[in-house]
């Protein structure tokens, strides 16, 4: 192959003189003598068909940022999409820390040269433990969906049972992840929610529970924003038949809503994205799993768990892996599920976020969302033809808007909102039968009264109706 | 003054040591780290009493016992701790073999952190995200060309999740073939990643393992003995962690295909193969690349990354949905995958990671990728010779074959002669500002260490790394105590490991530590 490519900034040894010197040392006459174990029949006897290298950093920047310019962001528009990925304010210090080269470019070092990595993640675990009022939190899983799937598999192993009941009012993507991850080892039974109330019904739950059920998984707040007022009763029903109660939650609401463990949860899971992560088109997700310090459950975590210890120097903290032998790193196919790269940087960032927020910050965050969402729901329900479902219930940041009596589809309405620089709520038609014409709106602390009024005003225009 | 003598063989290093407290110890109830926007009085009045809406017993009773710390102190705390981590940007990152620790160009990070990327919601109307969809689609095309497959999914967030995805695809396909009951075994190789075996178990398969021959290559005779009508799939790396490229790989895939099994290629070790050989040409039905390894995106202390899974057209309809498509005018998310396994991650994966990988490939082009493969391999073979010149070192399966991009070595001889173990060497390397990894467990190679220099290290870098190992070898023979009692210049000293496996003593959070170890 005619090959000339040298002095690339990312490849210092691409210089011909250096290559020659190194080849001499290795005992080959050119780099073409490398890869001699790749047989001729497997070789690619041509160049890859790719665009030519963009050698200058400036031109690379222009090219890629030019492509990015085609995006319209949630900063340039008013965004009311939530549905598992939330637009919250990201404190400057969160980005300051997670861009630090030391941790951004680190990977899987040891407790000695990476002492700080262990401390950062131990502190993350500890801060989440306070928020959740629990004792054990893992080094983050892939995302909240994986956390839920793993929590269910933990329950499977802890109880030796092969069935899980999953409440329907969760993010549909999450149910798809759970189904794939638990098949074929387990049977996943879906407990429908009642369209009238947005809640699951305890009598229906009772019919599905039994001695063959490893766990019930439900969320509060649910995907539809509703708070599960019957959580305690549901947990009791689980425990009565020896099943575990797994509750998924949004950590951003736990300054105002009770921690799920105090509702009877054995395992609590969710996504850390709301705690200091930009949305990143979905790339900001990271999962957490929490339990009490119960050996029966601790030994079922597949994740890394970092613990604190003393060192040979008095007054010094040390950190390391707790019960490493449970993991697939230690024991391949005999380990618990598998472990590997997941979302550690987001765990570290969530730790920074919770350190900044403190108890008051988390309480105020929840309170602002409660007010903003309630205000928005009331405001929208005043637009002619529009109603808000479950308006008599508690919701913190998300609520369901019913457009079915407006004569316009959610798609049409969102199209027209988009032309007014507003990202409308997620269309629930197609996700859940019986929810056609409804959309899930999300309001957080980033929304001002003006933002919400602008939405209400735009809907009045689009629907040709005055506000009541 | 006299000229300052800078003539030393190993670096005189000392890591930052701040002995920083745990964040909870900085608590002062009068301090705050940040304030949150509060609802205006006008808005509150219209919203009404929101607390009255919370069902009984559902309102938080006891505020979370998070610490109250001022903003500058939070910053200082975390900055100090980050200084106690030695990332790839700071050390000559050669010692973390299998992980392809290469330079992550800062320009790519800057692009990914642009609000034009970071402030996108995954459910935005496709018309408003044409930029990132274009990048994802074009990255798919580039990766297809590199591996020879027909379609790529970016949903898996890591290599392990990609392995689980491949096991899921194999399960879905054998079930679709009507052989779900019969085909219940996955075969892997001993030097493949632990997750290849572990994730197959998650997907309900039995795992069979092919060991190495005496020369280190996976044993075809063992494979022959294991392959039968129950074989659903074969998952392996090539090169494996030994760095040896199995040139007979096509024989392996043909044998597995002959019984109706499918072949999946863990390309975590692809860095030495760009433009040299392709997964498809070796008979694989699917493969994955770690964008956070071979494609330069930073590892972030363990994610988020991306394990991009490429498949042949027979598997394209089984991929997790959606994939990104182009209709000639606009890019869109395509959910129309009739046999999709569903999802392995919510939304569309980790798009900011895809963007960084895309920028990296554009900076190199085809010639640059070929140069990456050649230089990564040259660097590795250069280091290989330097390491094997040292007393006490050996490499298993040394029959004079070239290694591709990494090699797994052994310090068994050093251990036998001096009592210094590979873990001792690991701790001592910290004293020179360098990272050194042993191997996954259980150790197959005795007293192992695994080095992978990649293309970003210069000859001087490699020499510095090899000189540090040489220094430790010298110490092992002359003053082994200094190695055994290491680290000396690190942020921390040797741990008391006894609590980690003892349920009465382990403390996985600060509150557990407080509870278990009262004054």
Automatic annotation (TrEMBL), chain A:
Cross-referenced SUPFAM superfamilies: PLP-dependent transferases (SSF53383)
GO biological process assignments: nucleoside metabolic process
Domain Glycine cleavage system P-protein N-terminal positions: 10-455
Keyword Oxidoreductase among record annotations: yes
Key words of the record: Oxidoreductase
A molecular function (GO) term: glycine dehydrogenase (decarboxylating) activity
Entry-linked Gene3D superfamilies: Aspartate Aminotransferase, domain 1, Type I PLP-dependent aspartate aminotransferase-like (Major domain)
Key word DNA damage present: no
Record-given protein name: Glycine dehydrogenase subunit 1
Species of origin: Harryflintia acetispora
Automatic annotation (TrEMBL), chain B:
Catalytic activity: N(6)-[(R)-lipoyl]-L-lysyl-[glycine-cleavage complex H protein] + glycine + H(+) = N(6)-[(R)-S(8)-aminomethyldihydrolipoyl]-L-lysyl-[glycine-cleavage complex H protein] + CO2
GO molecular function: glycine binding; glycine dehydrogenase (decarboxylating) activity; pyridoxal phosphate binding
Keywords carried by this UniProt record: Oxidoreductase, Pyridoxal phosphate
Top EC group: oxidoreductase
GO cellular component terms attached to this protein's record: cytosol; glycine cleavage complex
Domain Glycine dehydrogenase C-terminal positions: 373-477
Ion transport keyword on record: no
GO BP terms, alphabetized: glycine decarboxylation via glycine cleavage system
Presence of the UniProt keyword Chloroplast in the record: no
Entry-linked InterPro entries: GDC-P_C (IPR049316), GDC_P (IPR020581), PyrdxlP-dep_Trfase (IPR015424), PyrdxlP-dep_Trfase_major (IPR015421), PyrdxlP-dep_Trfase_small (IPR015422)
EC code(s) of this entry: 1.4.4.2
Function comment: The glycine cleavage system catalyzes the degradation of glycine. The P protein binds the alpha-amino group of glycine through its pyridoxal phosphate cofactor; CO(2) is released and the remaining methylamine moiety is then transferred to the lipoamide cofactor of the H protein.
Protein name: glycine dehydrogenase (aminomethyl-transferring)
Species for this entry: Harryflintia acetispora
